[in-house]
Specification:
Layout (H helix, E strand, L loop, with lengths): L4 E5 L4 H27 L1 H8 L3 H28 L2 H19 L7 H27 L4 H33 L3 H21 L7 H4 L2 E5 L5 H9 L2 H34 L14 H28 L6 H23 L4 H16 L2 H11 L5 H15 L4 H14 L5 H11 L2 H29 L7 H15 L10
Antiparallel strand pairs: 1-2
Helix pairs in contact: 1-5, 1-6, 1-7, 1-10, 3-5, 3-15, 3-16, 4-5, 4-7, 5-15, 6-7, 6-11, 6-14, 10-11, 10-14, 10-15, 10-16, 10-17, 10-18, 11-12, 11-13, 12-13, 12-14, 12-18, 16-17, 18-19
Length: 485
Amino acid sequence: MEDGEISCSWSLPRWRAYVAAAVLCYINLLNYMNWFIIAGVLLDIQKVFHISDSNAGLLQTVFIGCLLLSAPVFGYLGDRHSRKATLSFGILLWSGAGLSGSFISPQYSWLFFLSRGAVGTGTASYSTIAPTVLADLFVKDQRTRVLAIFYIFIPVGSGLGYVLGSAVTKLTGSWRWALRIMPCLEAVALILLILLVPDPPRGAAEKQGEVSVQALRSSWCEDIRYLGRNWSFVWSTLGVTAMAFVTGALGFWAPKFLFEARVVHGLQLPCFQEPCSSWDSLIFGALTVVTGIIGVILGAEAARRYKKVNPRAEPLICASSLLATAPCLYLALILAPTTLVASYVFLALGELLLSCNWAVVADILLSVVVPRCRGTAEALQITVGHILGDAGSPYLTGLISSALRARRPDSYLQHFLSLQQSFLCCAFAIVLGGGCFLLTALHLEGDQAWAQQHGTGTLDSKDVDSKDRESQGLLSGTSASTEVS
């Protein structure tokens, strides 16, 4: 093959693009239901497998750990091979592993941990690749709106995971049936993916039907080097990491925290055998769904409108919402022993503000990274976010709770206070995330201009050096801003 570029024509009817987006949104819903369906039945799983808080947190850590280890592999495959085939493999893997986990007996608890790891590996393919497909189907304001709808299904799927797990447990008397229903929905998703979702050329939307493809690709190491020098990507990834830390701990432990709060207030009896009360999972799931839908729409629309007057709108909105989330989360935790209603109100406000960022952070990544590196960029952001974020936060929270509990009298109130205080590190983490997005705003315009100008390939070493100089010029006002999709 000769060095140079090959131009090829590619187009897709608009209705086909929207149908494909709808299918991808449906699969994203199932993806995040899988993330949190275990949290909705956590008390029952702890009773069946006889596991402590620290080991229960390890369930989510194994899930996220396998996800982050496989994300770079799927990112590499997604940038160089068929994205549809990779997504299909991921769906088959996570649905099969989830189904098998429902048949594991109590004496083989390690197999249950292993099945959750396999589910995490399968979901990594979708979290890494699906946003890049949408980025190649839509551009500019259309992309922002479609990504907003796509990322609505993070909180909606998370909330429905709690609801499905607790509701099915209540109806059947066994948490295992919740894991057996999901593969039926995922089989439908796989069929729809194969029949209705195309695999557009990388950068197709930006080229509006005329796609420029270089015959010689950059290496994975060159892609990583480019992303490491892209400061908007670096700082926004650290901001996403702080978000992941908080959502991981909150999503896993909040239903149990709310259950124990009701026990402390005398509204609920302690759980000594399964099935445990599922009302707290249902309430928290409903809160997550409602605040998620409202928050994602508000964040995306605010970013779309504010960008017209301030090109740095997206990271500034993320920073503001995270800095406002911190006091809400702190008050929700502190007020829980005295007034449960106020705790719910501040928890809902915190979730609402946190949800404002999901679509916006995805748009930041897609706007500052050249199309051919987006799969790798998504994978790297997922990997870093999970390694430093929700891979360890559920386990860390459970570990701190168990350590505090060991030093205190054996009472339900002290158990609850131990879990409450282990949550306080989340408020500090979310403030750090807000600071990272403020730093993202300093570099955003320069990196966006560079990604738009060099949208057909990855930078070499000389390009990276000149990029740094150009970014400084843009930030100091010596170069005109460029509108980026």
